[in-house]
Amino acid sequence: MKEFLKKIMSDVDGQASSKRLVTLISFLVLLSTWGANMFAGKTVDEFIYDGFLYIVCVGLGVVAAEKFAKRK
Fold first, then answer.
1. Domain segments of the chain: what residues?
2. What's the rounded Cα separation, in Å, for the pair 39 and 64?
3. What is the Cα–Cα distance from 54 to 72, expressed in whole angstroms?
4. Which of 7, 11, 48, 52 would bridge with 17, disulfide CB 3.0–4.6 Å?
5. Handedness of CA 22, 23, 28, 29 (dihedral sign)
6. Residue 16 contacts by C-beta under 8 Å, 6 or more apart in sequence?
7. Those residues with Cβ within 8 angstroms of residue 8's Cβ, 6 or more apart along the chain or in another chain
8. Residue 11, Cα to own-chain centre: how many angstroms?
9. How far apart are CA 8 and CA 52, in angstroms?
10. b/e string for 44-72 if b means 16 or more Cβ within 10 A?
């Protein structure tokens, strides 16, 4: 499991990727706010939820684009 997480958090060159870490943390915050809203009855401001949603979407897009970028 540790190797799997290490592989997920690495870029195409095998280096640790801060983009992936920020995207993962934002996804976990997004998931927890959704869970708090659905199951605990807590309300989350829409602009906060949207902000994390945009970070996750852009982060996943950038990570996916790394696979198609040309290496020098």
1. 2-66
2. 32
3. 30
4. 11
5. positive
6. 9, 10
7. 20
8. 14
9. 20
10. eeeeeeeebeebbeebeeebeeeeeeeee
- Tell me the three state secondary structure of residue 40: coil
Taking 80 as the threshold, does the pLDDT of residue 72 lie above it? no
pLDDT at residue 70 greater than cutoff 70: no
For 10, which DSSP code? B
How far is the C-alpha of 16 from the C-alpha of 8, rounded, in Å?
A: 9
Res 64 pLDDT > 70: yes
Read off the pLDDT of residues 21-37 as tens digits, 9 standing for 90 and up: 888 888 998 999 889 88
Residue 5: CB atoms within 10 A of its CB come to: 10
Highest mean pLDDT among 10-14, 16-20, 55-59: 55-59
What pTM value is reported for the model?
A: 0.75
